[in-house]
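One such given next:
>
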Amino acid sequence: MFKPCIVVPVYNHEHAIAGVVERLLAHGVHCILVDDGSTAGCARVLDRLAAAHPARITLERLGVNQGKGAAVLSGFRRAAALGYSHVLQIDADGQHNTGDVPAFLARAAAEPDAIIAGHPVYDESVPKARLYGRYATHIWVWINTLSFDIRDSMCGFRVYPVAPVNALAARRGIGTRMNFDTDILVRLFWTGLRVVNLPTRVCYPEDGVSHFRVWRDNVLITWMHTKLFFGMLPRIPLLLARKWRPR
């Protein structure tokens, strides 16, 4: 059974989230909004959205800010409790193209055991430092998977099967902040899940709010790549054998 929902981690995106939710609800898919310890202004916006669409929105609330990864995993646990088989994860700041939701869900329905990962197609609004900085992570991911199967591990627009994510999170810690998207994708790849890359347009709104903290998050990402590298070493035989396995 393919029964998808949408999980949106939200932290102080009160200026963007209503528009994002309106566009998502147009696709007829239930939304789980996870309030990651937002301030009162954003919390009120989320309360209003949930009250306006009680049958279409579930509001999950974390008492204190725990990070994007913690919020997404909380959404996965709620999705499982509500009986959903797949989660489409999308950011709350409006940078992702919600018009691609049907294409992502259709691909997930056709390949329910795979991860459908967004491969960003940027417009001129992308900050060049971010664009070039992503390539360091791309290279590490290619090393840590011994493959080029993951085109972009940092895009927060993707569809996962719920059960493997919750099983992985139950047996080991996953990055809870900006290291989440890469960490979970590589580790799910290690478990044998295929990654299907879909291009999707990504823009950076002029009034967008970024919660990337340069020093803290770069340290977390560097430590994540280090752990993944040493986790990859004993998996080399399996990863190499997988390259020759029939698809």
About this structure: The first helix runs from residue 17 to 25.
